[in-house]
C-alpha cells in the first residue's frame, strides 16, 4: 500500500489513509446479521455507529466474490464462506524523524537508516529511536519492517527493541535464518552491550581516570569496575484484568560498567550487559539501584506519568513473594487503573485536538520529541567465537553536551 509521508516539527507523519482487512466469517457468526455480530462481539463503537458504518461501506460482506449492497448486509444472515471486510480511515501517530532524506545507498543506508552489515541472509541496522520495529497498536506503515518493505527488503527482527530505544538490530531475511539467530541468542552464547546515560554518580565512577576513553572500546575487561544487579522483573499490562495483568516475575541479572562521569550534569555514561533476556531489565535494574536512565519516561519516577505504578515495580521486586495479600495486590492494580485514567484525561484536556473531516475521529497533536527518545542504545553484539560480531557508532548523548540536553 502506498502512503504519503511528510516531515514537520522533527517527526515523520503519514497522511491518514484507508486500510482494509478481510477474513472468513467464523462459524459462530452464521445465521446472524453482521450488525448483530458487531454489536454482540465488539465494543469499540455503539450500535448506531456500527449501523452507519455498514451503510457507508466501512463494514461489508463479500459473498461469492462480490460485495453485498449495504441494505442486504443489514438483512441477510452471514453464511458459510462469506468474507467479512472492514475498511477504516487510519490515523497513525507520528514517529521521530531520523534523517533529512530517506535515501538508499547500497551497503550503507536504507531509507536513511545506517546499515551495519548486509548479505543474502541478514540485515543489521542501527535502528533510530522513536520508531517501532513492527506493526503494533496504532502503528502500521510508520514502522521499521513496513518501511523496509517499501524498499523491497523483507527482514524479520531477531529480538525486540522498544520504540524509544536505538541501536543494533539484527534481522533475518528468511524465517529460518531469523530462528537460527534467535536460538543463538537464547543459548546465551551472545554478549550484548548497551550504553545508557543515567542520573547520579554510578558506583566505581570515582575510579575513572582522565583516560576513560580507553574503556569505551572494551568495557568489562577490568572486573573490579563491574557492578551486577540481580532481581526479578515483571511487567504490568492494564489491558488485562488482575491477576493476568501482572506478568510472572522472572529472575534477571545485568552487569554494569561506568565509562564516563559528567560532573556538570551529575550523570554517568554506563555500559550495560544483560545476562538474561527479560523485558526492560536494564531500565528496571538501573532505577532500582537509584540510577535511572536520565530521560526514561516510565522507570525514572521524576519523568513518569504513572509514578504510582512505576514506584510499585521498583519497590516490589517479586509480587508473587511479597507481604502483600491477593486483596492488597488487587487494590494496587485498581489504583494503577485509576492513575492511568486520570493521566489520559489530563492529556486529553491539554491537547489541542483536530477533528478529521473525512471520518470524524480525533487527531491528537504531535507528542514532545523528548518522549520519543530514550538514552539507551544497543551498542555491540558478539558470540563467544567472535565470528558473529557487530557494533554501531555511539549516539550523540555519550558526550558531555548533546543536542537533547535541556
From TrEMBL:
Pfam family, any one: PseudoU_synth_2
GO MF annotations in UniProt: pseudouridine synthase activity; RNA binding
Pseudouridine synthase RsuA/RluA-like domain span: 121-287
GO CC field: mitochondrion
Top-level taxonomic group: Eukaryota
GO biological process terms held by the UniProt record: enzyme-directed rRNA pseudouridine synthesis; tRNA pseudouridine synthesis
PANTHER family: MITOCHONDRIAL RNA PSEUDOURIDINE SYNTHASE, TRNA PSEUDOURIDINE(31) SYNTHASE
Protein's UniProt name: Pseudouridine synthase RsuA/RluA-like domain-containing protein
Lineage: Eukaryota, Fungi, Dikarya, Ascomycota, Saccharomycotina
Amino acid at each position: 500500500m502506498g502512503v504519503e509521508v511528510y516531515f514537520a516539527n522533527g517527526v515523520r507523519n503519514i497522511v491518514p489513509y484507508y486500510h482494509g482487512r478481510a477474513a472468513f466469517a467464523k462459524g459462530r457468526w452464521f445465521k446472524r446479521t453482521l450488525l448483530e455480530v458487531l454489536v454482540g462481539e465488539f465494543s469499540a463503537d455503539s450500535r448506531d455507529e456500527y449501523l452507519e458504518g455498514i451503510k457507508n461501506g466501512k463494514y461489508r460482506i463479500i459473498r461469492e466474490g462480490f460485495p453485498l449492497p449495504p441494505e442486504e448486509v443489514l438483512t441477510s444472515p452471514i453464511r458459510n464462506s462469506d468474507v467479512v471486510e472492514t475498511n477504516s480511515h487510519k490515523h497513525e501517530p507520528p514517529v521521530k524523524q531520523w534523517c533529512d532524506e530517506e535515501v538508499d545507498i547500497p551497503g550503507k543506508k536504507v531509507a536513511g537508516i545506517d546499515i551495519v552489515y548486509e548479505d543474502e541472509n541478514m540485515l543489521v541496522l542501527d535502528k533510530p529511536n522513536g520508531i517501532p520495529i513492527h506493526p503494533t497498536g496504532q502503528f502500521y506503515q510508520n514502522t521499521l519492517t513496513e518501511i523496509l518493505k517499501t524498499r523491497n527488503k523483507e527482514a524479520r527482527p531477531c529480538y525486540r527493541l522498544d520504540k524509544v530505544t536505538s541501536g543494533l538490530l539484527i534481522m533475518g531475511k528468511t524465517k529460518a535464518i531469523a530462528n537460527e539467530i534467535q536460538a543463538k541468542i537464547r543459548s546465551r552464547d551472545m554478549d550484548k552491550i548497551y550504553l545508557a546515560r543515567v542520573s547520579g554518580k554510578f558506583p566505581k565512577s570515582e575510579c575513572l581516570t582522565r583516560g576513560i576513553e580507553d574503556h569505551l572500546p572494551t568495557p568489562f575487561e577490568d572486573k573490579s569496575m563491574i557492578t551486577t544487579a540481580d532481581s526479578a522483573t515483571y511487567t504490568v499490562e492494564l489491558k488485562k484484568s488482575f491477576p493476568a495483568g501482572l506478568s510472572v516475575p522472572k529472575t534477571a541479572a545485568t552487569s554494569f560498567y561506568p565509562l564516563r562521569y559528567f560532573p556538570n550534569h551529575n550523570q554517568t555514561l554506563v555500559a550495560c550487559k544483560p545476562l538474561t533476556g527479560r523485558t526492560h531489565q536494564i531500565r528496571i535494574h538501573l532505577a532500582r539501584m537509584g540510577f535511572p536512565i536520565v530521560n526514561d519516561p516510565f522507570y525514572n519516577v521524576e519523568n513518569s506519568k504513572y509514578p504510582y505504578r512505576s514506584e510499585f515495580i521498583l519497590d516490589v521486586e517479586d509480587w508473587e513473594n511479597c507481604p502483600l495479600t491477593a486483596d492488597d495486590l488487587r487494590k494496587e492494580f485498581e489504583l494503577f487503573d485509576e492513575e492511568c485514567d486520570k493521566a489520559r484525561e489530563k492529556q486529553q484536556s491539554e491537547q489541542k485536538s483536530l477533528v478529521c473531516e473525512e471520518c470524524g475521529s480525533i487527531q491528537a497533536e504531535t507528542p514532545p520529541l523528548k518522549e520519543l527518545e530514550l538514552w539507551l542504545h544497543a551498542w555491540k553484539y558478539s558470540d563467544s567465537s567472535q565470528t558473529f560480531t557487530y557494533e554501531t557508532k555511539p549516539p550523540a548523548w555519550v558526550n558531555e553536551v548533546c543536542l537533547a540536553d535541556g
